[in-house]
User: Which sequence fits this backbone?
């Protein structure tokens, strides 16, 4: 479903600030694969996501989604195939617009937007039905401005908006990191439910190792722009946080020095 | 006095179209578009030249809108494809349009008084209806009610069209572009195209207003757009401050109301003995400053009053409680 071939990305090439953000990244996700991505700060995780989504173009390499080479396809066209939830709960929704209007925008992701009514009766029924999945009572607040929702509610809505049109690929970049623990737990739970329900091919970045182990069927660890460890479906079932840390130590010959690597 | 106010409502209804354009760029797209000063004149210039050349005034007015649309699109292109900052894109276009407008007109002023215009045609149409005679009981008799009523109707039709448009799929995407670009891009929208389209529509409305003002005043002048953007902003801000902007429907109504109110305020201000026509721009600036500051002051005052009330309530509760305590002590003893 998603294939990356020999992706390279260098920032500020030829200056003292030169930074190898991604080196020889190869990745292959089968339909329905749910891969979690861990790694210390600056490992290149967000860069990886940005390159898949088309926000950044790689210096070298190919991106293939659903059998099509999309390396040259622009971000806005590519996002017909890709759902994204950002770290910042404010980033995924339009605060001055109502819940139903936001959903209408998400609903038309794969359609061409013309002069038909954004929130029609038919669509409203669909929106209500989908919102019920969140168990937050948002289905009764269709006319509320999204700016009035709490961070957790907004992130749940973002997650729904990114997924309910069943994109080929779902990208989640630390989408629970800005929330308090109970809200984060809620969003994690919803993520699990939704990904399972629609069988979405998913790539999720997280700093929470336990979460990375609990969720999904595959796991990779990145460091300094490279994939340094990966666990397939079989191996992942036997992973623990201790094993992961040990793995890192053996490969890099040093302790994982990430402030954000949480050991819950 | 009556005639002056009447005239300011007439003009206000026509300027409301320009203010609605400014609302689209400033509020919906969040793009401080200074093209307005130029595109307003472009509207007047295109309409005037075509009318003098013998084109039907209605066709000329539509052509003026088209020219405004193009001007807005160019500003959009400068910003999105040329990566020039929004303010600068608008200023560059405004300056460029000054020369272009002169080229279109061929001279700095084109009189239209002896020409058949949209305004003269509408007046004739209206007088044919004989409604003016029926309205004499108002005591105050203007030349005709036609322009006032028809221009108000036009402003409302445009308002309703905007309300409708902003609720379509395309309109929602344009609103989201002004509200959260990251978000709308992740939902496969081409924000560059949406911005260009939005600015085109905004300036089409501005040019429509300019062409009608030229026909209403009986001339098109290359300087008639100076300060137009501030007038548009003043209308939007006054309108929102007085009528509110909770929903789109409310906000567009507020903009139309604000445009008319602005004209009335200026008319009244100019009747003050020591103020001259040349002071109008200063008055406009002051009105905008006032309208920007006033809502904040009012909010603060309301907040203060609420605090006071709460404090009084708290004190009263305390007092009541003490009373109860005293009473209970008394019954104890
Ligand atoms: N636009 C950019 N310009 C220059 N350097 C960049 C840019 N984006 C990222 N980098 C650099 O590339 C490296 C990888 O960054 P990236 O954001 O992918 O890390 P990350 O793994 O997501 O880290 P974190 O866990 O902190 O989010 C970092 O050293 C970063 O400073
Ligand atoms: Mg990151």
Assistant:
């Amino acid at each position: 479903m998603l294939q990356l071939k020999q992706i390279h990305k260098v920032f500020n090439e030829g200056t003292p600030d030169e930074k190898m953000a991604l080196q020889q990244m190869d990745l292959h996700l089968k339909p329905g694969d749910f891969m979690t991505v861990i790694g210390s700060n600056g490992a290149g995780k967000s860069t990886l996501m940005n390159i898949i989504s088309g926000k950044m173009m790689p210096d070298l390499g190919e991106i293939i989604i659903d059998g099509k080479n999309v390396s040259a396809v622009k971000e806005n066209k590519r996002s017909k195939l890709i759902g994204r939830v950002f770290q910042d709960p404010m980033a995924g929704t339009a605060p001055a617009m109502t819940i139903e209007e936001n959903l209408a925008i998400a609903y038309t992701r794969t359609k061409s937007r013309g002069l038909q009514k954004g929130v029609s009766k038919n669509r409203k029924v669909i929106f209500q039905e989908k919102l019920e999945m969140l168990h937050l009572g948002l289905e009764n607040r269709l006319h509320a401005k999204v700016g009035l929702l709490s961070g957790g509610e907004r992130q749940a809505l973002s997650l729904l908006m990114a997924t309910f049109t069943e994109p080929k690929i779902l990208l989640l970049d630390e989408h629970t990191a800005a929330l308090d623990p109970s809200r984060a737990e809620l969003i994690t739970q919803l993520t699990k439910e939704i990904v399972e329900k629609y069988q979405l091919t998913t790539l999720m970045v997280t700093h929470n190792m336990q979460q990375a182990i609990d969720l999904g069927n595959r796991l990779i660890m990145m460091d300094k722009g490279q994939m340094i460890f990966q666990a397939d479906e079989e191996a992942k079932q036997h992973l623990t946080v201790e094993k992961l840390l040990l793995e890192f130590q053996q490969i890099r010959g040093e302790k994982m020095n990430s402030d954000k690597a949480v050991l819950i | 006095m009556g005639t002056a106010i009447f005239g300011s409502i007439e003009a206000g209804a026509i300027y409301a179209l320009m203010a609605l354009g400014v609302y689209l760029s400033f509020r919906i797209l969040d793009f401080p578009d200074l093209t307005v000063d130029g595109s307003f004149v472009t509207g007047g210039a295109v309409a005037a030249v075509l009318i003098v050349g013998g084109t039907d005034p209605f066709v000329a007015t539509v052509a003026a809108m088209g020219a405004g649309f193009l001007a807005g699109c160019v500003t959009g292109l400068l910003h999105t494809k040329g990566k020039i900052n929004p303010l600068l894109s608008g200023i560059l276009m405004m300056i460029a349009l000054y020369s272009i407008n002169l080229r279109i007109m061929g001279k700095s002023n084109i009189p239209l008084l002896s020409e058949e215009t949209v305004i003269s045609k509408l007046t004739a149409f209206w007088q044919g209806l004989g409604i003016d005679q029926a309205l004499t009981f108002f005591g105050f008799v203007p030349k005709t009610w036609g322009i006032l009523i028809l221009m108000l109707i036009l402003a409302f039709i445009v308002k309703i069209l905007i309300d409708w448009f902003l609720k379509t799929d395309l309109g929602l995407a344009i609103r989201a572009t002004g509200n959260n670009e990251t978000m709308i891009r992740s939902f496969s929208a081409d924000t560059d195209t949406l911005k260009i389209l939005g600015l085109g529509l905004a300036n089409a409305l501005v040019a429509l207003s300019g062409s009608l003002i030229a026909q209403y005043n009986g001339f098109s002048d290359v300087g008639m757009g100076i300060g137009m953007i501030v007038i548009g902003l003043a209308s939007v801000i006054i309108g929102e401050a007085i009528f509110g902007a909770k929903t789109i429907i409310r906000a567009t109504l507020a903009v139309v109301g604000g445009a008319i109110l602005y004209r009335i305020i200026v008319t009244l201000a100019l009747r003050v003995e020591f103020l001259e026509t040349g002071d109008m721009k200063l008055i406009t600036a002051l009105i905008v400053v006032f309208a920007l500051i006033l809502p904040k002051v009012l909010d603060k005052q309301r907040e203060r009053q609420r605090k006071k009330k709460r404090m009084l309530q708290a004190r009263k509760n305390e007092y009541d409680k003490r009373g109860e305590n005293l009473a209970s002590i008394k019954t104890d003893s």
Notes: Chain B touches chain A through 22 residues (CB under 8 Å). Strands of chain B lie at 109-111, 219-221.
